[in-house]
Specification:
Layout lengths: L2 E2 L42 H4 L26 H4 L9 E4 L20 E3 L8 E2 H7 L2 E8 L2 E7 L9 E2 L3 H15 L26 H5 L18 H7 L15 H7 L15 H14 L3 H8 L10 E4 L12 E3 L1 H12 L3 E2 L2 E2 L3 H9 L3 H5 L10 E3 L2 E3 L7 E5 L3 E6 L4 E7 L10 H18 L2
Antiparallel strand pairs: 1-3, 2-8, 3-4, 5-6, 5-16, 7-9, 8-9, 10-11, 12-13, 13-14, 14-15, 15-16
Helix pairs in contact: 4-8, 4-11, 6-7
């Protein structure tokens, strides 16, 4: 049931400010310095208020760099996620020369006072409070292709690019699924049919389909809170983390893939592991002759009528970071989501085959997904690098660390795109507020109609 807040004075309509939200005690990523005590809330950690990278040059205490790890410490990371190109090598993903496909304004949705119960609690929270609690940088809600709600933190402009992190995986998975539909990739073939260099790795006997659905059995941990997890050397190899003195490990993302060993049987259980997507990026490059970001530009981005270019972060030898390197404007992220909601048709053309979108929405094994133990995602599955809820609205998502998201609700004809910079990486820290807030918005729009 949908409830409305009693006090209209509590509602926020400004596009430049969010509710301060909840102060939460949390640790940062394994390569970030833990801050003692309560962390600054959304308003207190705002990058503009903090003055990060301001000055000519910035003062030492206001400077953010990769080499000292400050770029992913909190609250500095709130600046970093909107300035990735200033920290890492990237390659442009051009929008092309066509006109912008409009996102027309719709009847404004008065969401700020909408209330819901976060997962696992009996208390209520407003939509506006959830934005602050989740350190939202920007959010846009589309209903039937029209913008009905849009908010930005002062440090993120509508024309500014922001890293999407693992939302990138859904772009890459969609490209790979398109190549499967065209017969250029065989989901039943082993990865080594296309990439013999991985014969001695965990991927040596894995199929393309198992990589797409992340049911490969890898001796690899993606626990962002564990400083000893495999994710740390993986991030170093990809160039996302500085290497310690004397480091002799893999120097590229593809070199890291060769080191992974098998742990169990492929095709049995889903476990979220980013190296799978790097394999997909390599597969796309191998069968098309072009890096995945270039294929994305040619097949999707240049056809969206995007407002701006996107860009992809690269490893040390120019390979695209397929698992999480895509940066773009928020409205363009919403355009991609709306195109998928409409069965791949957008801007007067069929960008993604309808059969590919239908296959994505159908999901995969819910039993295999259950093995991953996501308490906030009961009954879900993972297919073609998308998260499928199997709920009564047919909702499915693209999800990235620190709160990046595309939320597609076909029944409500709603798409939500969000950028965020939450202190904790894993989405389990945002799901209890984000998922019920999004569903409340969908129910509200369904009741409101046009």
């Amino acid at each position: 049931m949908i409830h409305r807040s009693e006090s209209r004075a509590a509602r926020r309509h400004s596009t430049l400010q969010f509710a301060k939200g909840l102060a939460i005690v949390m640790a940062t990523l394994p390569f970030a310095t833990t801050i003692a005590g309560d962390l600054p809330d959304a308003a207190q950690s705002d990058p503009v208020a903090r003055g990060w990278m301001v000055g000519s040059p910035p003062a030492a205490e206001k400077t953010i760099r990769v080499g000292d790890g400050s770029f992913m410490k909190f609250p500095q990371l709130r600046w970093s996620l909107g300035h990735w190109r200033e920290l890492f090598p990237t390659r442009n993903v051009s929008r092309g020369n066509g006109p912008v496909a409009p996102l027309p304004a719709g009847k404004p949705a008065d969401l700020d006072g909408l209330t819901f119960k976060p997962i696992g609690t009996a208390q209520t929270m407003t939509w506006a409070q959830s934005l602050g609690a989740n350190y939202t940088d920007g959010i846009v809600v589309l209903h039937r292709g029209r913008v009905v709600y849009e908010r930005y933190l002062p440090s993120l402009g509508a024309d500014q690019q922001h890293i999407a992190f693992s939302v990138t995986k859904s772009f890459i998975g969609t490209l790979a699924a398109m190549l499967v539909a065209e017969g250029k990739l065989d989901p039943g073939a082993t990865v080594t049919k296309y990439i013999p260099e991985l014969a001695d790795s965990a991927f040596g006997d894995a199929t393309v389909g198992q990589v797409l659905d992340m049911t490969t059995a890898l001796d690899y941990s993606e626990d962002y809170a564990d400083p000893n997890a495999s994710f740390v050397p993986y991030a170093r190899a990809a160039g996302m983390l500085p290497s310690p003195p004397g480091y002799t490990g893999p120097g590229t993302s593809y070199d890291f893939l060769k080191t992974l060993k098998k742990n169990g049987a492929h095709g049995v259980e889903f476990h979220y592991r980013s190296p799978n997507t790097d394999v997909l990026g390599w597969l796309i490059w191998r069968v098309t002759g072009r890096p995945a970001d270039v294929v994305l530009q040619e097949r999707v981005w240049s056809k969206l009528g995007a407002e701006g270019d996107a860009y992809m972060a690269l490893d040390r030898v120019g390979a695209p970071l397929a698992a999480g390197g895509l940066n773009m404007r928020l409205r363009d992220l919403a355009r991609f989501g709306e195109m998928i909601r409409l069965g791949g048709k957008w801007n007067g053309q069929q960008v993604v085959p309808a059969a590919v979108v239908d296959d994505i929405r159908g999901g995969a094994s819910r039993e295999a997904f259950r093995a991953a133990g996501y308490a906030t995602l009961p009954g879900w599955s993972y297919h073609d690098q998308w998260w499928i809820s199997h709920d009564d609205h047919g909702m499915f998502m693209a999800r990235g660390i620190h709160g990046q998201a595309i939320y597609i609700d076909p029944k409500a004809e709603m798409v939500i795109a969000r950028f965020a910079s939450h202190p904790k990486a894993a989405n389990v820290n945002l799901d209890p507020t984000s998922l019920p807030a999004y569903r409340a918005a969908a129910d509200y729009l369904l009741l409101r109609g046009k």
